[in-house]
Amino acid sequence: MIKALIFDVDGILAETEEAHRRAFNDTFEFFHLDWYWSKETYHKLLRITGGKERMRAYQKAHPNGLRTLQDPEIRAIYKAKMRRYRDLLSEGLLSLRAGVKELIAHALHRGLRLAIATTAKRPHVEALCRSCWGQEADEIFEVVAACEDMGHKGPESNLYDLALDRLGLTAQECLAFEGSQSGIASAKAAGLAVYATPSLYCQQDDLSAADWVSDHIKPDHILAITTGKAGP
């Protein structure tokens, strides 16, 4: 029996990456920086974990024709990008992915516990919950394991381990939700069963390592999984 559902955030609860990309580009323009990340460029950069790390990688890959940033500038620009992202969400830019709102409501009604394990920062999680639910994250999710909780950019599986520890449950008692090949690998490394639904920027990812794959979240199917009544 599954007792808890553990969600990634970006691309799972909502398609956030376009908002992140817009926030980066708006911030680059604000700082008069001659950078612009197209969808194709951002898709490639998403292979790198962390916004500041993506900026450093982009700069390294384009040594000519771009203004070179030192680390203090990168940190300042990224901090401004985070503020811009939260502003965009406060303007109602995001909506939950199909099936998410229904699943959360039904899961709570059935007594399933809810958690988040994400490499996103806690303020991003809070901004999304306020934008999409009009509530704080702690009012919906019992546990939020975000990147700050690890103190460094370690293996993502550590976040799942942390979420399990805070829930006081085993991996066999939880179901993870991921939308990328790397995310599935992280959840599997923590021993979790995975329900995968590809996010906008991960349509070409190989999701075959997941236990269940769907083009979107299907509440009835997932609730059947939690009771052991659903097949592959």
Detailed description of the structure:
The chain is an alpha/beta fold and about 230 residues long. The chain folds into 2 domains: about 5-15 and about 95-225, HAD superfamily/HAD-like (Rossmann fold); about 15-90, Putative phosphatase, domain 2 (DNA polymerase, domain 1, Orthogonal Bundle), CATH 1.10.150. Helices cover about 45% and strands about 10% of the residues. The chain contains 9 helices and 6 strands; from the N terminus they run E-H-H-H-H-H-E-H-E-H-E-H-E-E-H. The chain has helices spanning about 15-30, 40-45, 50-60, 70-90, 100-110, 120-130, 155-165, 180-190, 220-225; strands at about 5, 115, 145, 175-180, 195, 210-215. Strand 2, helix 6 and strand 3 (about 145) form a beta-alpha-beta unit. The protein starts with a strand and ends in a 6-residue tail after the last helix. The model has no long low-confidence stretch (mean pLDDT about 90).
Write the layout of secondary structure elements.
Layout: E1 4-7, H1 17-30, H2 39-45, H3 51-61, H4 71-90, H5 100-109, E2 113-117, H6 122-132, E3 143-145, H7 157-167, E4 174-178, H8 181-189, E5 193-196, E6 212-213, H9 219-226
Parallel strand pairs: 1-2, 1-4, 2-3, 4-5, 5-6
The main pleated sheet reads as: 6 strands, parallel
Which outline best applies?
Answer: globular
Q: Output the strand order for the largest sheet.
A: 3-2-1-4-5-6
In CATH, the architecture of the largest domain is 3-Layer(aba) Sandwich
Distance between the termini: 16 Å
CATH superfamily of the largest domain: HAD superfamily/HAD-like
Order of helices and strands: EHHHHHEHEHEHEEH
